[in-house]
């Protein structure tokens, strides 16, 4: 990957002898450093942990210092103040005789994945609200109801038909879509009372 591209996965090693950390260029960049400009230490790593995650990370670091395998999902704050959600997985590092010499593993920056999940949830909520608001508006105009009363009717019909409110609103709007208002409100009445799963 080029130096300007965001790097989502990087490697690290912790050597018990001398309590030395090594990290790849990608891990350095996750923390906000240009590769080679800083020597990672336990203190430096702790400094970058989100305050609410420090206790959890300290417990994980105890495992690292004992040469134990671990996995952790926590937040780090880079030098620019941006928060990254990372998954860190470490396994035992052994020498040729099988003696544990430290821990080796990787960081995965999952900030973007989580952000896109949140963005998707927010847009789903917005779409649901828009459908429900449109259906409420139809009932308010058709029957001269308040917004609260129109909403109560939609909730009542969605429960009666065992249909999620968003789905009921969408089906109701589809049922009246393109209809030319006849004398009276029969098409609205019909849609309201016959819309079901």
Automatic annotation (TrEMBL):
Matching InterPro entries: ANTAR (IPR005561), CheY-like_superfamily (IPR011006), PAS (IPR000014), PAS-like_dom_sf (IPR035965), PAS_fold_3 (IPR013655), Sensor_kinase/Photoreceptor (IPR052162), WH-like_DNA-bd_sf (IPR036388)
Segments forming domain PAS: 23-68
Ranges for domain ANTAR: 112-173
Keywords: Kinase, Phosphoprotein, Transferase
SMART domains listed in its UniProt record: ANTAR
EC number(s) reported in the record: 2.7.13.3
Catalytic reaction equation(s): ATP + protein L-histidine = ADP + protein N-phospho-L-histidine
This protein's record includes keyword Phosphoprotein: yes
UniProt entry tagged with the keyword Transferase: yes
Protein name per the record: histidine kinase
Source species of the chain: Mycolicibacterium setense
Higher taxonomy: Bacteria, Bacillati, Actinomycetota, Actinomycetes, Mycobacteriales
